[in-house]
Design a protein that fits this description.
By secondary structure, this protein is α/β, with parallel strands linked by helices. It contains eleven helices and 17 strands. The protein starts with a strand and ends with a strand.
Length: 346
C-alpha cells in the first residue's frame, strides 16, 4: 500500500508498505478521504533532526489524523462495526477504562500516554489504516467521505468550541483565523444563527469566509479588529469570540473584542499570551475558556447535525488530491491561503 510520512524540511516520504492486518479489537479501514490540518504543518516544517528524534526507533509514523473510509477487515472480538460500514475515525485512543475514555474522550485519558493517530502512531495517509474498532464512528450515508474527513478533526474542533461558547441566534460571534478550523466555525456559527465576523490577514480566506456565512470580514493588516468589532456592535463588542490561530497578540485581541458578560474560547494550539486580567477579563465578568478537539459522542452528533440541517460543508473544501500528489498538496496547504484540503481515494 502507498503510505505518506513527514520527514521534516517540508518534504514528503512516500513508501510502498505491507498491508496491515487486524489484531483483537482492531479493524482495517480502506481509506476514502483524509484531511490536512494545521497540526500537520508542524512535523512538515520541522527540522530533519527533530523528526528523527520524534520517530520510533528511527521509523516515522504514517501521517494523517483526519481519516474516513470503509471497514475492510475486522479482528477478533469486534462487535460495533461490520465489514462495509462507512466510518469516521476518531484519531485518539487511551486506556479504554478510565472515566474519560469511557465517555468518549480518550485524549483526556487519566493514565496518560494516549495515542494520537498520525503523530505518535500510524495515521490515515495510506491506502489502508489499522485502527481500534472503538475509534470508529458511524457515518451517515448522506455525508460524503471528504466531508467526513473534515468533521474528523477541523470541523469537529470548531463545533465543540461553539458548543462550549453556547453560540445562539442572539450572538455576534467573532472568529479569529479563517483556516480550516476557523472557517468551519464561521460556517457552523452562522448555521446556529449567529452574526459572524471573520478576521484573517489573507484576502483569499476572507473571501471564503464571506461565501460561507460571515456577515463581515476584517483584514487586521488594514483595520484594527477590536475597534471595528466595537463599531459594529454599538461600542459593546462581540457576545462570543473564538481564536483559531494560537498567536499571542491575536488571542489578546480576541479577548479585547468581547463585551461585558461575554464569552471567549482559545482553540488554536501552541504559543503564549499575556492578558491584563483586571480590565480585560475580571472587570468584564468574561467567561474565558479553552476547547480541545471533541469526543466520539460529539463527532457522531455533528455528523448527523450536518446532514439534518443540510449544512453545505463541502463548500469549505477547496482542494482535493490523490495521495500520490501528497507533495503538491502539502506545499499548497503550507501557503496558508486555502480552505480545507483533502486526499481522496477512488
Amino acid at each position: 500500500m502507498l503510505a505518506v510520512r513527514l520527514p521534516g524540511e517540508q518534504k514528503i516520504q512516500s513508501t510502498d508498505d505491507p498491508d496491515p492486518t487486524p489484531g483483537p479489537g482492531q479493524v482495517i479501514i480502506a481509506m476514502k478521504a483524509s484531511g490536512l490540518c494545521g497540526s500537520d504543518l508542524k512535523p512538515y516544517r520541522a527540522s530533519a533532526a527533530a523528526r528523527k528524534e520524534q520517530s520510533r526507533d528511527g521509523n516515522l509514523n504514517i501521517s494523517g489524523h483526519e481519516p474516513c473510509g470503509v471497514v475492510a477487515q475486522i479482528g477478533v472480538g469486534v462487535a460495533n462495526v461490520q465489514v462495509g460500514d462507512r466510518v469516521i475515525v476518531h484519531h485518539y485512543s487511551g486506556c479504554g477504562n478510565c472515566k474519560h475514555c469511557l465517555t468518549g474522550w480518550p485524549q483526556l485519558c487519566l493514565l496518560g500516554g494516549h495515542k494520537v493517530y498520525g503523530f505518535n502512531t500510524d495515521g490515515g495517509n495510506s491506502d489502508y489504516m489499522l485502527a481500534l474498532a472503538s475509534m470508529c464512528v458511524p457515518m451517515p450515508d448522506e455525508l460524503s467521505f471528504a466531508e467526513g474527513a473534515a468533521i474528523s478533526c477541523g470541523t469537529g474542533t470548531a463545533y465543540q468550541a461553539l458548543k462550549r461558547l453556547d453560540v445562539n441566534g442572539v450572538d455576534t460571534l467573532a472568529v479569529y483565523g479563517q483556516g480550516p478550523v476557523g472557517l468551519s466555525a464561521t460556517l457552523l456559527g452562522a448555521a446556529m444563527g449567529a452574526r459572524v465576523i471573520a478576521i484573517d490577514p489573507d484576502e483569499d480566506r476572507l473571501k471564503l469566509a464571506l461565501q460561507n456565512g460571515a456577515e463581515v470580514a476584517i483584514n487586521p493588516q488594514k483595520d484594527d479588529p477590536v475597534e471595528t468589532i466595537k463599531e459594529l456592535t454599538r461600542g459593546e463588542g462581540a457576545h462570543a469570540a473564538l481564536d483559531a490561530t494560537g498567536i499571542g497578540p491575536v488571542r489578546r485581541q480576541m479577548v479585547q473584542s468581547v463585551r461585558i458578560w461575554g464569552r471567549a474560547c482559545l482553540v488554536g494550539e501552541g504559543g503564549e499570551v499575556t492578558f491584563a486580567p483586571s480590565p480585560e477579563i475580571i472587570h468584564k465578568h468574561m467567561n474565558l475558556m479553552g476547547s480541545w478537539t471533541f469526543s466520539t459522542v460529539v463527532l457522531a452528533e455533528l455528523a448527523q447535525w450536518v446532514v439534518d440541517r443540510r449544512i453545505p460543508l463541502s463548500k469549505i473544501i477547496t482542494h482535493r488530491f490523490p495521495l500520490s500528489a501528497a507533495e503538491e498538496a502539502f506545499a499548497l496547504f503550507n501557503q496558508g491561503r486555502t480552505g480545507k484540503v483533502v486526499f481522496e481515494w477512488d
